[in-house]
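Quick start: load a record and inspect it. Here is Drug resistance transporter, EmrB/QacA subfamily:
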Amino acid sequence: MNESTAQPLDPRRWRALAFIGLAQLMVVLDGTIVNIALPSAQHDLGISDANRQWVVTAYALAFGGLLLFGGRIADRWGRRRAFIIGLIGFAGASALGGAAVNTGMLLGARALQGAFGAILAPAALSLLTVMFTQPKERAKAFGVYGAISGGGAAIGLILGGALTEYASWRWTLYVNVLFAVVAVAGAIFEIKEPHGSRNTNRLDIPGILLAGSGLASLVYGFSKASTDGWSSSTTLGFIIAAVVLLAAFVFVQARTKAPLLPLRVVLDRNRGGAYLTIGIAVVGMFGAFLFLTYYLQVVLGYSPLKSGLAFLPMVVGMMIGATQVAVRLLPKVPTRALMVPGALIAAAAMLILTQISVGGSYATHVLPALLMLGFGMGLVFMPAMNLATRGVKPQDAGVASAMVSTSQQVGGAIGTSLLSTIANSATANYASSHAAQVHSKADGVQLGLQAMVHGFSVAYWIAGGLLALAALSAGLLINARPQSGGPDVHASGDGTKATEDAPPVFAH
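Running the structure step on this input writes:
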């Protein structure tokens, strides 16, 4: 089928993309925007050091644990409806958090944000999946979406720094209300959804409980590893519980008539390879955000806003990689021909970051590494997200989209804990082995900085290795051919036509 005989396309799809992208930006940047504001919030509300991490963890647990359920809700209720409900709920939770008067109120609001984000994120991506069916247009739409998903965390650092420095930490939450109002208006007037794409099967309650508790245990277990260590009973207990619960989830999904996550979604070679590659790449990429923020502020003495702005070249690199290079090449070359070089470029960026030093400068190592990292990840994220939702039945678009967010969320949790543990251990070893060199207070301060940077450098070597592993994953598992034909929503994982359905009818 060529484009001239293609099925009717939604005439408002490009305007809809702007509002879908805005909603996705709101969800993604919320993972980092609050981090910079955390010290101020802790001081104002009297949050204890023990509870401080829960401001981040409460959001991550609710978001990661409910993603698959949120994806199925989008398939069942309708993606547009789930999108609007997710936006309104997220805005309400953000306003509640911004107005928090104590620790409990803020933590509850963050958990609510995560819950509504778990409805919103899959709905946004699945809307793209069912609205953009022409391969060339789909590539452009996913290029924009992939750049937002990858660069949103860096934008969160910039916006968080600016709002904290010039307004108040509360505005890092209130700003979501502004985003949501615009996105809801756009959803009401511009977003349509094809009829006949909903999943009317009953909800898989055992699957929801097993997936939610398993993913939440996994995220929590890895978050505890970064604070309590890998050998603590809490860390091991939650990770073992997660493995048991998720194994039980797979067992149930293989035997139920209406599964929460049909195993065909993840067992497809290309789609499963895309999920795995995204997850591994995010594990490695989180090292850049995690350690560079400390390096810029503690070692180079940057303010929160200046350190946030320092990440801007990564966003530029990602926009170029995803919206200029990947969009043009995806219809012409095999998917892995973009993803493998992209992951290797990102790995090389990490190797450059291993050379940072106490006396180093932003221009010599950080700037080129951020440009390369952004460009490389743009070549990974855009094709991977396109492939992860390509060929899936419309009735499963929400849950397939949720798997993309799940890969990112779990990868982020693993990356934060794994790389933090490695860096902290290397820092401690360096400090103890060089303790004899300390003869004054100034020597002690200098050694502390040198030990910290050494720990970061070791972690960057590991992050580079993980990104090389992501390249290997893409190279071995993904074999999708270039797409240049007609609509592909019902294509099989390898790009061949699987079914022929009637053209979609778009309606509010």
